[in-house]
Design goal:
Helix content is 35%, strand content 14%. The protein is globular and about 70 Å long. It has a single domain, classed as TIM Barrel (Alpha-Beta Barrel), CATH 3.20.20.70. The chain starts with a strand and ends in a 14-residue tail after the last helix. α7 packs parallel to α8. The chain is of the alpha/beta class. The strands form 3 sheets. An 8-stranded mixed β-sheet has the order 5-1-2-6-7-8-9-10. It has a two-stranded antiparallel ribbon with strand order 3-4. Bound molecules: iron/sulfur cluster. Iron/sulfur cluster binds next to β6, β7 and β9.
Length: 343
């Protein structure tokens, strides 16, 4: 058996799902219980969730492999652009993931991203040899202290592996960051700038509290905060060095270092607010509830949506700039705010 996101099952015509947007990638998930310990994940060993059919906000029905062969074979003709194979860390690559990857590659010529917990360059090489188009090594948490607590692993080691893979396979490595794990905006954008400088593809997720997980009671990020991070990462994708012009007040972004007209012009197409990650990956409703905050738009934004999002973003920055000026005007020794390293 292998699991398929409910949206992917609908896109492959295996299931009827009422939705306003189809995924452009087929999302497959192998395994049900993970040796990993991520505090936000219902499949992790520190989760007490009885529902192991969820990952993110979506369900993953299981299918016999034989039932998926024809649909996967026809996925490209159905307009799908990529396959994303995710695996929980329950067995060795040789026993679990590599045979699945070879099976997928026999059925489809679509590029395949593989997202799995690996520890060595050799394991990444095996994934590429078996047909992976891209390998994803998820960082998730942007702050090393939080990373250790939330993922029970070493940030430095994971980041070192990510960077070594990016050097060895330029343009073929992806990672994920989650906004809303109590990192500061400065930490998230600084980690993002380092990742983008290394030509690593970065997918941004909004933290989604799921019941039964140790972080199930943490709220999701505020929309204003998420828009600042999306806009910041979008600008850094174009120009990673722009981070040196960003300004922060107590970790919160107050300025992108661009004049408002220039900022508006760069963001006016709205693509900054669409799902980011591997080419062709739109992840509809991974983080969103229909009718609630659309953190990652899985399609181009309408003119009204762009106007609304920019209004939220620019109003908020104006507020931040005012706070900043107030702090700069405060007498020396005042505790009104702390200076960021690069202010
Ligand atoms: S960005 Fe999308 S396709 Fe790439 S690894 Fe993440 S979920 Fe999969």
């Amino acid at each position: 058996m292998i699991r398929l996101s409910a949206g992917s099952a609908a896109a492959l015509q295996l299931k009827t799902v009422k939705t306003d947007i189809q995924p452009t990638t087929v999302y497959l998930l192998q395994g049900t219980a993970c040796r990993g310990a991520c505090l936000f994940c219902p499949l992790g060993r520190r989760s007490s969730s009885r529902s192991r059919t969820y990952l993110g906000r979506i369900t993953w029905p299981a299918y016999p492999r034989a039932a998926l062969e024809k649909p996967l074979n026809q996925a490209e003709q159905q307009g799908l652009q990529r396959i994303c194979l995710q695996s929980v860390a329950e067995e060795t690559l040789e026993r679990s993931l590599l045979p699945t990857l070879r099976w997928i590659k026999r059925l489809s010529s679509l590029p395949c991203s593989v997202s799995v917990r690996i520890e060595t360059l050799h394991q990444a090489a095996e994934l590429f040899r078996a047909g992976a188009d891209r390998v994803n090594i998820a960082l998730d948490a942007a702050n090393p202290r939080l990373f250790a607590r939330i993922k029970d692993k070493s940030f430095a080691e994971t980041q070192a592996l990510l960077f070594s893979c990016a050097e060895r396979w330029p343009g073929k490595i992806s990672t994920h960051l989650i906004c809303g794990l109590r990192e500061t905006e400065e930490e998230l954008l600084q980690t993002g700038a380092r990742i983008l400088e290394k030509n690593i593809t970065l997918g941004l997720f909004a933290f989604t509290p799921l019941s039964g997980t140790p972080l199930g009671s943490l709220p999701p990020p505020e929309e204003q905060q998420y828009r600042r991070i999306q806009a910041g990462l979008f600008l850094l994708r174009q120009e990673p060095a722009l981070f040196l012009r960003f300004r922060f007040l107590q970790g919160r972004l107050t300025s992108f270092g661009l004049a408002p007209a220039q900022l508006r012009k760069r963001l006016s197409a709205g693509s900054a607010f669409q799902t980011s990650g591997c080419p062709g990956c739109n992840r509809p409703y991974y983080n969103e509830r229909p009718g609630k905050t659309m953190y990652n738009y899985p399609r181009p934004l309408t003119a009204e949506e762009i106007a609304r999002v920019l209004k939220i973003l620019l109003e908020n920055l104006a507020e931040g700039e005012m706070l900043h000026e107030r702090k700069m005007a405060a007498p020396l020794g005042s505790t009104a705010g702390s200076r960021s390293e690069h202010e």
